[in-house]
Fold:
Amino acid sequence: MTGTLAAPVPLSATVARLLDVSVTGPGRAVFADWAGLALRDNPRRAQLVVSRVLGKHVPAAPADVLAAGAAVGDAVAAVLGPDAAGLVIGYCETATGLGHAAAARLGTAYLHTTRRLHAGVPVAARFEEEHSHAVGHALQPTGEVSLAGDGPLVLVDDELTSGRTVLNTIAELHAHFPRPRYVVAALLDARTPELTAAFAQRAAELGVRVDVAAVVAARLTFPADVLARAAAARAELPPPAPLPSGPPAAVVPHPGLWPDGVPATARHGLTPAGTARLAAAADAAAARLAPGLAGSRGVLVLGTEELMYAPAVLGDRLATRLPRTPVLLQSTTRSPVHAADDPGYAVRRTVAFPAPDDPGRGSLVHNLADPAAVPPPGEPWSDLRADDVVVVADAPAADCAGMVAALRPFAARAVHLVTVPGAQPEGAR
Structure:
């Protein structure tokens, strides 16, 4: 992938101007370096904070993605003091990888919420995310991972805006699986003083100790008419960037890279030993992939929706084995975002395709190149693409066909498909 990564304007500049956004707080100075702003296609909320270190909507170095999770883990450890976390829970889909990396840093069992329910596993808890495009979350732990326990429970999300969702989660869990202490952890604490006070009051009403651990605190303030401003802004912005103009790449399947019986997600929970097995499987897969990627000018590893941590580890191991090749990480998503080909905007293009786990449902991927990248003189940003795209999907190869076809224009050499077998959850009927 050619082009430089020096942005002429921050990725939050366009939305900040159109919506009259102000950023305050101790993290204000670093906000523009690791995040941008986009507009949601969601009537409930106007804006979306687009992180540079999650490996979700913007390509990021896998090492940076894993380091962000480790930073969350360190923030949790600082809050817990001598206490050891009993369980870490991450929110799907954006924080599944972030929470897993935080749990790995803490050496703690990990479980993430899911919208992909397994019919043979009981649902231990359900709750709603009020502002989301897909509101339902469920927890389906099996085997050695349980919601019951004595140690502090850590809930990880990428951004803490009001705290309603996480407090709803704590209320649901505490009613059935009470613990003496909870920690809410995030990369960004964006609460206003009013929302911080409301959070503390609701936590007190629950009658439990709830601490907050965040890497960055930066408050985003919007005018009262922000939803109307967002509607006008969507009409004012340019259209999304087109497809790259180069020929579409070949498709190279890589069956059998992931060993049977090794879960690639914590959808049903993983102990620290299970996370170590996952990392070893990702390392072995990277060792087999690396020779076929030799000579590539750029590799983009693409996770699929909730499957984020295993692709991050795979990408990190590829970067180690290909030291002269830039390796970046991103993920597909269910999240609709308004795309606009504007250099001060965080989502410049969106590609839609059938979801591999449910081909009757649509899935998306945004950008597929760094939105801040400056192309070579005379070339449009839309022509930036990796030589090789490595897709990691926990679905049969046949069900990935629509996604792979949609990705072919975004690779100059090949789209590599790595299918991860879905291990049968322990205890499933």
About this structure: The mean pLDDT is 92. The domain at 250-419 is CATH 3.40.50 (Rossmann fold). The CA atoms of residues 25 and 218 lie 5 Å apart. The chain has ten helices and 19 strands.
